Amino acid sequence: MSNLWNFLAMLTFKPQPLPDDIRLDGLTAIVTGANVGLGFEAAKELASHGLSRLILAVRDLSKGETAKAEISQESPECEILVWQLDQESWGSIVTFARRVSDELGRLDIVLLNAGLKRLEFTRSPTCHEAHVQTNHLGTALLSLLLVEPLRRTARQTGKPSRMTITASSAAFSAPMQDILEPKGGRASSPGLMTRPHSSLV
Ligand SMILES: NC(=O)c1ccc[n+]([C@@H]2O[C@H](COP(=O)([O-])OP(=O)(O)OC[C@H]3O[C@@H](n4cnc5c(N)ncnc54)[C@H](OP(=O)(O)O)[C@@H]3O)[C@@H](O)[C@H]2O)c1
C-alpha cells in the first residue's frame, strides 16, 4: 500500500528550483549521470546559480558534450568540463577520482546521481549484477574516493563541502533478508527485482 502512496506522491510532486538568492560563485561541482534526467536538470540548476566550474561525469562523452552545449547556452559564464565515468568499471571510477585530485584545485559539491534501471538480469564486467554494481557498489566506491578532495576544500575555505547521493524509494521494497544479508543479485532474479537492493546505498 505504501508503494501506491509513493507512486501517487511522485505523480503529483513538483520539484522546486533553488531559491534565487543562493549563489555558487567560485564553487566547483561534480554531477554524475549528468547527460539526461535528474542529473542533467540538477547540473543545469547549479550552473544557473553562478557556479564557477561544473564537471559533467558521463558514460558517453558525446552525450555529455550535447548536455554541455545546452547548459552553456543558459549559463555561459560557467566553465563546464565533460569527463568520462563508467560505474560498471572499477578502473574507470578510480581513474575519475584520481583526475579529480590531480586536476581540480577545489571541490565543493558532489551529486552522485548515476543509476540504472533495467527489467532483465544482466551482469557487469565486474561480475556483480548490473544494478548492484552501478547503483550501489560503484556509487559507494566513488563516494569514498571523493571524500578527501571535499574535505581538503572545506579545510581550505573554512566552509562545509557537500555530497548528495540520489536515492530511490525502491529501497523500501527490498526484502529485510536482503538488507541483513545482501547477495548482490542472483542469475535467477530479473533486474527489476534487484533494483530495490541496489537502492539501499
Ligand atoms: N526518475 C525517477 O523517478 C527516480 C526515482 C527514484 C530514484 N531515481 C534515481 O535517480 C537517479 C537518476 O534517475 P533518472 O530517472 O534521471 O535516470 P536516467 O534518466 O536513466 O539517467 C541515469 C543516468 O545515469 C547514467 N548511468 C547509467 N549507468 C551508468 C554507469 N554504469 N556509469 C555511469 N553513469 C551511468 C546514465 O548514462 P547513459 O545516458 O549513458 O545511460 C544517465 O546519465 C538514478 O540513480 C535513479 O535510480 C530516479
What's the layout of helices and strands?
Elements: H1 2-12, E1 28-32, H2 37-47, E2 53-58, H3 61-74, E3 79-84, H4 90-103, E4 109-112, H5 130-157, E5 162-165, H6 176-180, H7 191-198
Parallel strand pairs: 1-2, 1-4, 2-3, 4-5
Bound molecules: NADP nicotinamide-adenine-dinucleotide phosphate.
Structural description of this entry:
- With about 200 residues, the chain is an alpha/beta fold.
- The chain has a single domain, classed as NAD(P)-binding Rossmann-like Domain (Rossmann fold, 3-Layer(aba) Sandwich).
- It is about 45% helix and about 10% strand.
- It contains 7 helices and 5 strands; from the N terminus they run H-E-H-E-H-E-H-E-H-E-H-H.
- The protein has a 5-stranded parallel sheet with strand order 3-2-1-4-5, sandwiched between helices.
- Strand 1, helix 2 and strand 2 form a beta-alpha-beta unit.
- Helix 2 runs parallel beside helix 3 and helix 4 runs parallel beside helix 5.
- The mean pLDDT is about 90.
- The structure holds NADP nicotinamide-adenine-dinucleotide phosphate (NAP).
- NADP nicotinamide-adenine-dinucleotide phosphate binds next to helix 2 and helix 5.
How far the N terminus sits from the C terminus, by CA atoms, comes to 23 Å
Radius of gyration: 18 Å
Bound molecules: NADP nicotinamide-adenine-dinucleotide phosphate
CATH fold title: Rossmann fold
Report the top-level CATH class. Alpha Beta
Instruction: Let me know the CATH homologous superfamily.
Output: NAD(P)-binding Rossmann-like Domain
User: So what's the overall shape?
Assistant: globular
The CATH architecture designation is 3-Layer(aba) Sandwich
Query: Could you give the order of strands across the largest sheet?
Result: 3-2-1-4-5
How many structural units, i.e. domains?
A: 1
Biggest pleated-sheet summary:
5 strands, parallel
Q: How confident is the prediction overall: mean pLDDT?
A: 89
Strand content: 5-15%
Tell me the helix content.
40-55%
Number of helices: 7
Order of helices and strands: HEHEHEHEHEHH
**Number of β-strand runs:** 5
Alpha-beta classification:
alpha/beta
Please mark out the parts with pLDDT under 50 across 5 or more consecutive residues, or reply none: none
